[in-house]
Specification:
alpha/beta, 11 strands
Length: 320
């Protein structure tokens, strides 16, 4: 086999403390911390293998990559890759699966505790002198709810949804899995989507972003939820109508929301969630639910394993 050129378009998405294994095949390794859209075509023109996390690969920039044989996505979601073009051009695509089944559930549960116990609100109150004004050993400006005994509604029953459910059960929570929105009949072990929205004390999202799931949670769904319930999105930003979510929080249709993913990333000051991030019942993190050191090391190892398997003519974590 001839020497393969491997180009990593956004190496900075993997922290520097994480060690990438060296591929086992003869190769030339080229990496860029970041790649802007206008730089993609030139950087992949001579590549046999391209690694991307969030850099978009589409028909326009893939057309000139005549040698390209593999797009290795260093994440689970592949919505940044034109799969139709790759299939037509016989370019294989791989992704990373099952690497964050510890990190994401822990992040979700951490957000759940913070929201149910109103930790952000109390922190802000102390900062603003509320404790001093009350002149007592404690004060209660926000509701505090126990997590044990409450009900978690899980939307998305893949590895992350299942792992989050298992962790929730270990904390004494009841767990319900929602069937697909609009499903005429429920699969065994699932409840109707609308019923889960109505009954759950917390909703957590773990489904892929597709045309069918875009704005899966909007004004209608938020109005179904209990006023005491919270919504946590560590799945994909487009799953939730952000404008509707902020309105629901302001109008106290729901008690709180934890958001790790945004419709546009990085989110800037024009994003409605960023604009309202001082709300005590809104908890934001910058798409890091997946990002414990152990999970990123798992991801990195699987990434190189995918490359090695492809070079050996094997199929591992193939999307197409």
């Amino acid at each position: 086999m001839s020497r393969l050129s491997v180009v990593f378009l956004d190496r900075a998405t993997i922290p520097t403390q994480i060690q990438l294994k060296v591929p086992e095949f003869d190769h030339e390794w080229i990496e860029y911390d970041f790649t802007q859209p206008e730089q993609v075509s030139e950087r992949i023109a001579s590549a046999d293998i391209v690694i991307t996390n969030k850099v978009v690969l589409n028909a326009d920039n893939l057309t000139g990559a005549d040698k390209l044989r593999l797009v290795a996505v260093s994440a689970t979601g592949v919505n940044n890759v034109d799969l139709s073009y790759c299939a037509q051009a016989k370019i294989a695509v791989t992704n990373i699966q099952g690497y964050a089944t510890q990190s994401v559930p822990e992040h979700v549960i951490a957000m759940l505790f913070a929201l149910k116990r109103n930790l952000v609100g109390y922190h802000q109150d102390i900062k603003e002198g509320e404790w001093q004004r009350h002149k007592q050993f404690c004060f209660f400006t926000h509701s505090i709810q126990d997590v044990a005994g409450s009900t978690l509604g899980v939307i998305g029953s893949g590895g992350l949804g299942q792992a989050t459910a298992a962790l929730a059960k270990s904390l004494g929570m009841n767990v319900m899995f929602a069937d697909r929105k609009g499903a005429e009949q429920c699969r065994e072990g699932y409840l109707p989507f609308e019923l889960v929205m109505q009954l759950a004390d917390a909703i957590t999202l773990h489904c892929p972003l597709t045309a069918e799931t875009h704005n899966l949670i909007g004004e209608r769904e938020l109005n179904m939820m209990k006023p005491s319930s919270v919504l946590i999105n560590a799945g994909r930003g487009g799953l939730v109508d952000e404008e509707a979510l902020v309105c629901a929080l302001k109008e106290r249709c729901i008690a709180g929301a934890g958001v790790d993913v945004f419709t546009q990333e990085p989110a800037d000051e024009s994003n409605v969630l960023i604009k309202n991030m001082d709300m005590p019942n809104l908890l934001l993190t910058p798409h890091v639910a997946w990002g414990s050191d152990s999970s990123i090391q798992n991801l990195s190892d699987i990434l190189i394993d995918n490359l090695n398997a492809f070079a050996q003519g094997l199929s591992k974590n193939r999307v197409i």
